[in-house]
Amino acid sequence: MYSYKTKVRSNIKNAVEPVRNKQNIFEIENYLGKNNYRNKVIWIFGINTGLRVSDILGLNVGDVRNKSYICLKEKKTGKFKQFLLNRKLKGIIEDFIENRPDEEPLFESQKQHRLDRSQAYRMLNQACRAVGVKETRIGTHTMRKTFGYHHYKQFKDVAILQEIFNHSSPKITLRYIGINQDEINDSYSQFEL
């Protein structure tokens, strides 16, 4: 019999996690850059914007060409989102789209079709395995959660992240990026009787 508790347990068990170790983030980036520059750009795009992979893969070259800000309508929520491209992302995008037509998908498969979520999933999992990130459950949402985790660690402002992610409460945002579990684990490690 299916119940709400079963669904919650299943979601927790299958939930992906952020890449918490910054060294692993750079190792993934380097691995992807050596094997497929497009995949490196997807990784950098994801961890620097916090966008869902469906929104990243839905972009065309013209959506990012000569832009400081990107405006898009989120596929999941239908809400409009505007965000700044940081210096690193802006530079890598300019190199990546040079001499490409505006109407072309930003991220294409080898057959010149728009890259799909399953291809991005395989690419990310392969890269994480190759650099030894095995203790974390990895999926395309890992990029979004990695952005959120490190954004929170740097700025300690859950309200900004709540707004970025369109979450209804700070508690949801902290649980989403894995901060609650980190704090619980830390409290256990520092507690002795």
What does this structure look like?
- It is built from eleven helices and two strands.
- The model is unreliable at 1-11 (pLDDT under 50).
- It is mainly α and 193 residues long.
- It has a single domain (19-189), classed as Orthogonal Bundle (hpI Integrase, Chain A), CATH 1.10.443.
- Strand 1 and strand 2 (80-84) form a beta hairpin.
Chain-wise SSE layout:
Blueprint: H1 4-14, H2 22-35, H3 37-49, H4 53-57, H5 61-64, E1 69-73, E2 80-84, H6 87-97, H7 117-130, H8 141-155, H9 158-165, H10 170-176, H11 179-189
Antiparallel strand pairs: 1-2
Helix pairs in contact: 2-3, 2-7, 3-6, 3-8, 9-10
Features:
193 residues, mainly alpha, hpI Integrase, Chain A, two-stranded antiparallel sheet, 11 helices, globular
User: Helical region count?
Assistant: 11
Kindly estimate the percentage of residues that lie in beta strands according to DSSP: 5-15%
End-to-end separation? 41 Å
Low-confidence stretches: 1-11
Spatial strand order of the main sheet: 1-2
- Major sheet details: 2 strands, antiparallel
CATH topology: hpI Integrase, Chain A
CATH class category name:
Mainly Alpha
Overall helicity: 55-70%
Please write the string of helix (H) and strand (E) elements.
HHHHHEEHHHHHH
CATH architecture: Orthogonal Bundle
Give the C-alpha Rg.
18 Å
Overall pLDDT, averaged? 91
For the secondary structure, the number of strands is: 2
CATH superfamily: Intergrase catalytic core
Query: What is the molecular shape?
Result: globular
Question: Could you say which structural class the secondary elements and strand pairing correspond to?
Answer: mainly alpha
